């Protein structure tokens, strides 16, 4: 399974998420979205997920900390114990043995990130 992981500020809009998604998914057929569980109910996330028509998986914050990421945000490291919420969410949702196809890409407004991972069984 190919998963787009999302990380974003509380000020992010659906357009922010779409922009980051577009940058990261250029050549990938994404099958699902994923982000950290504490973002559930965020208005922009809900709107973006509905417009994408992709299933959305919420990852427990504790499951992000063990994921090895290619990039590092000091804020993500301090809050979630991982270098990138987008990368860690994609990896966790894609399952054991997953690998990143795209490191996090950042929306122009810098409010959202997206990374792509593929499951290890593929």
Write up this protein.
This protein is of the alpha/beta class. The chain has a single domain, classed as Nucleotidyltransferase, domain 5, CATH 3.30.420.180. The chain has helices at residues 14-24, 43-52, 61-64, 74-80, 85-94; strands at 2-8, 32-36, 56-59, 99-106, 112-118. A five-stranded mixed sheet has the order 3-2-1-5-4. Helix 1 (14-24) crosses helix 2. It is globular.
Please summarize what this structure is:
This protein is an alpha/beta fold. It has helices spanning 14-24, 43-52, 61-64, 74-80, 85-94, and strands at residues 2-8, 32-36, 56-59, 99-106, 112-118.
Structurally, the number of domains stands at 1
Weakly predicted, low-confidence segments: none
CATH architecture: 2-Layer Sandwich
Largest sheet: 5 strands, mixed
- Please write the CATH class name: Alpha Beta
Supply the number of helical segments.
5
State the CATH superfamily name.
CobE/GbiG C-terminal domain
In whole angstroms, the N-to-C terminal distance is 7 Å
* Strand elements, count: 5
Strand line-up of the largest beta sheet: 3-2-1-5-4
- CATH level 3 topology: Nucleotidyltransferase, domain 5
By secondary-structure content and strand pairing, the structural class works out as: alpha/beta
Mean pLDDT: 93
Strand content: 25-35%
Rg over CA atoms, rounded to whole Å, is: 12 Å
> How would you spell out the order of helices and strands?
EHEHEHHHEE
Shape: globular
Helix content: 25-40%
């Amino acid at each position: 399974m190919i998963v787009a992981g999302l990380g974003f500020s509380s000020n992010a809009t659906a357009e922010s998420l779409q922009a980051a998604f577009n940058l990261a998914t250029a050549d990938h057929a994404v099958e699902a979205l994923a982000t950290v569980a504490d973002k559930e109910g965020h208005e922009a996330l809900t709107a973006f997920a509905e417009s994408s028509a992709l299933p959305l998986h919420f990852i427990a914050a504790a499951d992000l900390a063990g994921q090895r990421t290619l990039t590092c945000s000091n804020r993500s490291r301090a809050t979630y114990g991982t270098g990138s919420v987008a990368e860690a969410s994609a990896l966790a949702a894609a399952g054991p043995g997953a690998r990143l196809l795209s490191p996090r890409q950042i929306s122009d407004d810098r409010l959202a990130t997206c990374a792509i991972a593929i499951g290890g069984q593929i």
